[in-house]
Amino acid sequence: MTSTHRAALIDGKSIAVKMRAEIAQEAGALAAEGWQPRLVSISVGDTAAAELYVRNQQRSAESAGVQFEARNYDASISMEQLVGVLQGLNADPRVNGIIIQRPLPDHIPVKALQKAVHPLKDVEGMHPASIGNIVYNDLALGPCTAVAAVEILKTLPLTLEGLDVTVIGHSEIVGKPIAFLLMGLGATVTVCHHMTRSVAMHSRASDAVFVAVGKPGLVTGDMLKPGAALIDIGINRVDTPDGPRTVGDADFQSCAEVAGWITPVPGGVGPVTVAILMQNAVLATRLQKEHYAAQYANTEV
Ligand SMILES: NC(=O)C1=CN([C@@H]2O[C@H](COP(=O)(O)OP(=O)(O)OC[C@H]3O[C@@H](n4cnc5c(N)ncnc54)[C@H](OP(=O)(O)O)[C@@H]3O)[C@@H](O)[C@H]2O)C=CC1
Ligand SMILES: Nc1nc(=O)c2c([nH]1)NC[C@@H]1CN(c3ccc(C(=O)N[C@@H](CCC(=O)O)C(=O)O)cc3)C=[N+]21
């Protein structure tokens, strides 16, 4: 690509606004049937990483017609106490979604805690049942960031069947679910991690690259096939001469000169992640309504 080439910017904010309008409609219909969607966020200790996310969730919930309650517990809370809190929320039919903000203090095993959330209220899509559904290509409540990143790819004029895609990062909450979702759409997926000998060898051969690592500047333009789509999931706080800034994992300047489409950070995957969380909260409410209806259908009135 000549240096005058500039990748088309993928506007996550406008994608999120469009999604929220549909979500608000479904939330309104459920509320009219006596099922007002309600989401409870659990954070433990002072989590700067999650604070921004929780604030955006609160704002997004208001415009999506989802009730939102943010609970923050002291870092000293024990695993048993937290599981007790979750059991109360699982049993409360007025609560439809539960999200456990990360990171958690070291003494709390996040995977065990995630399993304590009822699968029907697992709006984070991190319960083994939810992850299993992705493997079975039977997506119901999927991990918000992974679903958001793939939804963004689906807005591009690309045929997903047979598309060559590289996913950089293989975490359970982002990289791995993205890979399974893409396989379910017929893409040919390569997953890279810190042991991969040459990430560039794979990313240069790909029509689309997802990066979810947490290292600013990790992906540079010379690592991309000209015209490829770059979906940047990274969120990094960096100091710049003009003060601290949030940047992604891509070196935006050099990537924008090669890529065909690129997501900015902020303004790319982030807002769509929050919209998917609201979509999951409404879907979870719908699933619970149907579950209770089925359960009480055969009870004598
Ligand atoms: N926009 C959004 O909505 C969200 C954004 N994020 C952001 O996405 C990023 C990743 O988050 P998360 O998945 O939770 O992070 P993790 O730290 O859990 O995973 C990072 C992954 O990157 C891999 N990795 C590390 N170094 C390299 C390297 N040099 N080359 C290739 N792979 C490497 C690691 O591999 P290995 O395991 O082998 O070390 C690991 O698989 C973070 O910046 C986070 O803030 C996270 C959630 C939501
Ligand atoms: N269980 C759990 N799941 C997560 O997915 C999770 C988490 N915990 N903890 C924190 C990280 C980080 N994360 C963000 C998502 C969206 C924005 C977001 O909305 N960013 C906007 C706004 C940024 C701003 O306001 O500056 C943007 O990128 O445009 C930010 C951060 C989700 N995370």
From TrEMBL:
Q: Which GO terms describe its cellular component?
A: cytosol
Residues that coordinate or bind NADP(+) = 169-171, 235
GO terms of biological process kind? L-histidine biosynthetic process; methionine biosynthetic process; purine nucleotide biosynthetic process; tetrahydrofolate interconversion
**What InterPro entries does the record tag this protein with?**
Aminoacid_DH-like_N_sf, NAD(P)-bd_dom_sf, THF_DH/CycHdrlase, THF_DH/CycHdrlase_cat_dom, THF_DH/CycHdrlase_NAD-bd_dom
Q: Does the keyword Chloroplast apply?
A: no
Q: Where in this chain does the record put each Tetrahydrofolate dehydrogenase/cyclohydrolase NAD(P)-binding domain?
A: 143-286
UniProt-listed SUPFAM superfamilies: Aminoacid dehydrogenase-like, N-terminal domain, NAD(P)-binding Rossmann-fold domains
Q: Which UniProt keywords apply?
A: Amino-acid biosynthesis, Histidine biosynthesis, Hydrolase, Methionine biosynthesis, Multifunctional enzyme, NADP, One-carbon metabolism, Oxidoreductase, Purine biosynthesis
Q: Where in this chain does the record put each Tetrahydrofolate dehydrogenase/cyclohydrolase catalytic domain?
A: 10-124
Q: In which pathway does it act?
A: One-carbon metabolism; tetrahydrofolate interconversion
According to its UniProt record, the EC number is 1.5.1.5, 3.5.4.9
Question: Catalytic activity, per the record?
Answer: (6R)-5,10-methylene-5,6,7,8-tetrahydrofolate + NADP(+) = (6R)-5,10-methenyltetrahydrofolate + NADPH; (6R)-5,10-methenyltetrahydrofolate + H2O = (6R)-10-formyltetrahydrofolate + H(+)
Instruction: List, in alphabetical order, the Gene Ontology terms for molecular function in this entry.
Output: methenyltetrahydrofolate cyclohydrolase activity; methylenetetrahydrofolate dehydrogenase (NADP+) activity
Q: Does the keyword Ubl conjugation apply?
A: no
How does this chain assemble? Homodimer.
Q: What does this protein do?
A: Catalyzes the oxidation of 5,10-methylenetetrahydrofolate to 5,10-methenyltetrahydrofolate and then the hydrolysis of 5,10-methenyltetrahydrofolate to 10-formyltetrahydrofolate.
Per the similarity annotation, which family is this?
Answer: Belongs to the tetrahydrofolate dehydrogenase/cyclohydrolase family.
* Protein name, per record: Bifunctional protein FolD
Provenance organism? Salibaculum griseiflavum
